[in-house]
Structure formats: C-alpha cells, structure tokens
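Quick one: structure tokens for this chain, please?
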Amino acid sequence: MRADPAASGHRRTDREGRDRTFTEGAWAERIDHAVTLHLLKVWRRHPGLNAAMAVVARVTPVVMLSLMVLASFGWPPGVPGTRAASCGVGGVVAAVVARAINEPISRWVNRPRPFETAGFAPLVGHAGGQAFPSNHATGALALAVSFVHVPVYGPILLGLAVLLCISRVYCGLHHLTDVAGGALHGALAGAVAAWWQDAGGTLELFG
C-alpha cells in the first residue's frame, strides 16, 4: 500500500515546524551556534584537551555511580553509609524518572545535534537527532543533587556532573541549551529526591 503523499507532507511540515523552534533566529540558537564555532577553533589548537574531554564524556557517569556505591559502604570513615545508600536509591530513581520524562520530549522536538547542523565529526561517536534535552545532563544532575547533603561526596559528585555537562558540549554532542535544559530538569528531580530524604521517605527503607 502506497503512503499518502499529503499525509507524508503534513508530517514533514510538522517536524520542520518543530525544528524551526530551534533553528530560525532565536537568540538561544545564535548563542548555541557561536559556541559550536568557537569550540571547533579550540579543537584545532588543543588536541590533548580534546582527548581528555572525550574521556570525561565517556567515563564520568560510571565514575559517579562508583563513588555513590563507595559512599554507601561508609568510606572514608565519617561518611554515613546508611544515609549515602538511601540518597543513592533516591538519586537513581530520580534520574530514571527524569530521563523517562525526557524521552517523549526528545522525540517530539527531534533537535539535530551540533555535528549534524555544522557538518563535523564529534569527538565521541553518537547517533544524530533527539539532542534536546540532554539525558546525560539530566541524569548526572539528578544523581549529584540528591547526594548534596552527603559529606565528602556531595561536592565531588556535583563537580563531576558539571564537568560532564561541559564535556557533552565540548565534544560536539549537544548544544549549550540542550545541556542547560537537561541540567535544570535533573537538578529539580534531584532536589525532590533530596527533600524526600530529609522528610524521612527512603531512609525508612534502610533505617
């Protein structure tokens, strides 16, 4: 059965309309484009930094989760292991829920990634499309903010989350506004998880 050309054209028009939200003259789009062009110049001058940021983009999520597991064992001495384990559960739940909310938004917007719009190879391989919001930024901030009251680890995880966000932009995988939107969403989810911890919610699972 042949597809209806009119229906196909209508779907194409809908998608083009959504894309124009990000691609036609908006101030945020102009900032995103300027950042991308600047980073391409930086790439040519600093190959060592390129390699380092590619590693950061790949391994930081694993490092963050590993630190959360380490904290749950109460290391170093003085870190409340039960509290850390509880925050870890809340953070993972917050990250999963926030990313699930991102999925239909990403598919509907279907924003091209910087390497698609500017025509270059990113420092880390990635499929195209669905750039907004950044799932990595969402997950990282949800985990970090949920851990913010855990001694020693809270500031470290927050710093790693910010570094991951920077690396996703630097490597050409996301526009600045993709990461900003994802980070705000993740921070909100993490704040809800942290509030739940303070209210005694998940702590009861371990207390």
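Residues 81-109 form the longest helix (29 residues).
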